[in-house]
Amino acid sequence: MKIAFAGFGEVNTPIEVIERKCKSACESLMVEGAEVYPFYPIRDDYEETYVNNAVEYFSKVDFDVMVLCVAGWIPTHAILKVADKFRHKPMVLWGLCGWYEDGRLVTTADQAGTSACRKTLKDLGYTFKYVYDIVKMPSKVDEVLSFCKAAAVANNIRKVKIGQLGYRDMQLYGTQFDGIAVKRTFGVEIECFEMLEVVQRAEKLSQAEIEKVVNRIKAWKFVKTPNEDAVLNAAKYYLAIKQIVDERDYKAVSLKDVDGFKKLLGFPPAPIFTLLAEDGIITIPENDAMGNVTQVLVNMLTGQIGAYLEFYEYFTDGVLAGVPDYVPSEVVDGETTILPAAFGELSQGLLNVSKVKTGALTMCRLFIDDGKFGMHLVYGEGETPESWEECGWDKPAPQLPSLKVKLSNVEDFTQNVMGQHYIISYGNNLKLIKEVCQILGINVI
Question: Mean pLDDT, the chain, as a whole number?
Answer without folding.
Answer: 95
